[in-house]
């Protein structure tokens, strides 16, 4: 953004009152130059920055936009509940209704608890696993992202060794590595975190591995530890159930967030009866955890997921984008790696070790009206249409053409984020 733009002005004002002007995963500090930091509005599949530029948004607010920004039925449910009451001295009836709906939808779930962010849900899962048998050791995949609390943040500034004293890492997808981690945990093995689709920034994604999933289930059963699926990123985007149900394995606990309220601030921990007593003993809470309006939005979102073909449509949209990009990259002489499920597309360039091609391509596509990420998995949503894919491919085609002309002069992007 230029210095005399509204975005530039807001950045300057923000730097005076917010550390670094922005923080967290939505900071544009590591995105290509020209990416806007501040947005004015969103509708359906599109977002508009404060300077009026419009983009087809393939980041979907980093996941929460499942049905489209401002989906009318969800907004109506939220607004109706706000008129009745939102944050009150106790929860509304909608809390029970939402718990019933989630338990009905998710095969392994016998109970539900609600919070605000995915990191809340994973932290609740960790504490529940420790409370289950009074054990301490938690197994986590190397580089897996489970939130930004001291025990799991990928940036360790301000974090002590004691915050992570009882974490044991293993290589996700590698049963030998997992078995070794379980042996090291010994009789203190409380719980195992897994991600159904390994999604790390700057790295290819993977699909669920049935053999690994069955092995993880067996290792937890033999040790009396709880198996936890972190479905915050992929839950309800690829299945109307826990993502590991697609390979026939049920966890004891699962963590949900992002899409369950179509942008409303709500997340959930779901559990089987084996973990019910432990979950009832822990103390977790928040002033806004029991607010009724986000729960009403989530209840309506779940209804739409159950009763419509929205998941099939957003998958088809992702597949159409993937096919178009594959054809374009071949035509322009570039190699692309497109990994993971089509509803959560990850696009990286072959022979691009410092990501200069990916950065330049995404920057050019942005200028042509498509908001893509050079290092993070993206998301399709059910508001996207074939016309949106066509328009996106026009932007990416122009970006490939520009990249072909300028590839020899490209500089590497500055200060790449660590691979996490």
Give the arrangement of secondary structure elements.
Elements: H1 6-17, E1 39-43, E2 46-49, E3 54-57, H2 72-84, H3 94-105, E4 111-115, H4 118-133, E5 137-141, E6 167-170, H5 175-185, E7 189-194, H6 210-223, E8 226-230, E9 253-256, E10 267-271, H7 276-281, H8 292-307, H9 310-332, E11 336-339, E12 346-349, H10 356-367, E13 370-371, H11 386-406
Parallel strand pairs: 3-13, 5-6, 5-7, 7-8, 8-9
Antiparallel strand pairs: 1-2, 2-3, 4-10, 9-10, 11-12
Helix pairs in contact: 2-8, 3-8, 5-6, 9-11, 10-11
Please describe what this structure looks like.
- This protein has 2 domains: 6-62 and 309-409, Alpha-Beta Complex (Aspartate Aminotransferase, domain 1); 72-307, Aspartate Aminotransferase, domain 2 (3-Layer(aba) Sandwich).
- The two termini are 27 Å apart.
- It has helices at residues 6-17, 72-84, 94-105, 118-133, 175-185, 210-223, 276-281, 292-307, 310-332, 356-367, 386-406, and strands at residues 39-43, 46-49, 54-57, 111-115, 137-141, 167-170, 189-194, 226-230, 253-256, 267-271, 336-339, 346-349, 370-371.
- It has 11 helices and 13 strands.
- Helix content is 37%, strand content 14%.
- A 7-stranded mixed β-sheet has the order 4-10-9-8-7-5-6, with helices on both faces. The chain has a 4-stranded mixed β-sheet with strand order 1-2-3-13. It has a two-stranded antiparallel sheet with strand order 11-12.
- Helix 2 (72-84) runs antiparallel to helix 8 (292-307) and helix 3 (94-105) runs parallel beside helix 8 (292-307).
- With 420 residues, the protein is an alpha/beta fold.
- Strand 11 and strand 12 form a beta hairpin.
């Amino acid at each position: 953004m230029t210095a005399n733009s509204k975005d530039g002005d807001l950045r300057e004002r923000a730097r005076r009152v917010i550390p670094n002007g922005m923080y967290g995963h939505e900071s544009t500090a590591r995105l290509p130059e020209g990416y806007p930091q501040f947005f004015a509005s969103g509708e359906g599949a599109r977002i508009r920055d404060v300077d009026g530029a419009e983009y087809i948004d393939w980041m979907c607010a980093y996941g929460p936009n499942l049905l489209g920004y401002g989906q009318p039925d969800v907004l109506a449910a939220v607004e109706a509940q706000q008129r009745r009451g939102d944050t009150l001295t106790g929860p509304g009836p909608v809390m029970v209704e939402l718990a019933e709906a989630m338990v009905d939808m998710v095969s392994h779930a016998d109970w539900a608890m609600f919070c605000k962010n995915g990191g809340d849900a994973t932290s609740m899962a960790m504490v529940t696993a420790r409370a289950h048998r009074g054990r301490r050791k938690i197994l986590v995949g190397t580089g897996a992202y489970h939130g930004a609390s001291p025990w799991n943040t990928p940036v360790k500034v301000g974090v002590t060794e004691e915050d992570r004293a009882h974490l044991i890492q293993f290589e996700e997808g590698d049963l030998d590595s997992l078995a070794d981690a379980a042996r090291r945990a010994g009789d203190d093995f409380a719980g195992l975190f897994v991600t159904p689709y390994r999604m790390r920034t700057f790295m290819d994604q993977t699909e669920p591995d049935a053999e690994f999933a069955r092995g993880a289930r067996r290792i937890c059963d033999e040790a009396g530890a709880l198996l936890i699926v972190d479905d915050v990123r992929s839950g309800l985007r690829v299945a109307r159930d826990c993502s590991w149900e697609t390979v026939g394995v049920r966890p004891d606990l699962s963590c949900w967030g992002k899409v369950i309220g179509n942008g409303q601030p709500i997340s959930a921990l779901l559990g089987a009866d084996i973990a019910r007593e432990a979950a009832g003993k822990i103390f977790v809470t928040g002033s806004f955890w029991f607010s009724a309006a986000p729960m009403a939005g989530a209840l309506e979102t779940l209804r739409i997921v159950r009763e419509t073909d929205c998941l099939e449509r957003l998958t088809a949209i992702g597949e159409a984008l993937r096919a178009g990009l594959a054809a374009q990259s071949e035509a322009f002489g570039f190699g692309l790696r497109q990994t993971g499920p089509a509803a959560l597309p990850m696009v990286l360039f072959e022979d691009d070790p410092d990501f200069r091609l990916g950065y330049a391509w995404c920057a050019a596509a942005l200028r042509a009206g498509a908001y893509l990420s050079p290092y993070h998995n993206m998301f399709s949503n059910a508001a996207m249409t074939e016309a949106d894919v066509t328009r996106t491919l026009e932007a990416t085609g122009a970006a490939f053409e520009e990249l072909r002309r300028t590839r020899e002069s490209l500089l590497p992007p500055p200060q790449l984020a660590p691979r996490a």
